[in-house]
Amino acid sequence: MQFSRYLPAFALRQALILTLAALVLGLAANQLNPRGIAIGAAPTGAAAWDDSPTPVYPRPITLDQLQGLMQRRAALLIDARSREEYLDGHLPGALHIPFEGWFEQIDRVRALPHERWLVLYCSGGTCDLADLLAGELIREGFEKVAVYRGGIAEYRLANPLKRGEEAGRE
Fold this sequence. Notes:
This protein is α/β, with parallel strands linked by helices. It has six helices and five strands, in the order αβαβαβαβαβα. The chain folds into two domains: 1-33; 46-155, Rhodanese-like domain (Oxidized Rhodanese, domain 1). It has a five-stranded parallel β-sheet, sandwiched between helices.
């Protein structure tokens, strides 16, 4: 009879301990995940873009930061999607280097400017082609690599897309 009196307090304490453990493990997993959610207030807009090297590879970039870089022509945009998707609509001035078969364009990849930021994107959402291609570029020695994870899905909500062949051939 005595034990049943302490059972609700014991269960509550155990639930609290499990909840705290889950919170700590979840935050740790988010921090270690390269596609984790940014926690805390981060500056936004073009002024928030810091051109200095970063230990986060590839560097995540927001729509506001992307638009600031595009206005200043401070980055080279790279579309990692298929040719059909690229022709259907891409960011203005973007080069097409699809992740699928990128190694077939290795000479073109190696000729990209190392001193300029390379901003990769794909469809957005669960698309990881930009992240995969960014990893290959980093392995090729590029240090200024960023990924716009909002991709076409987010960009097209407020901006027109270019259609047809890539920059330089339009």
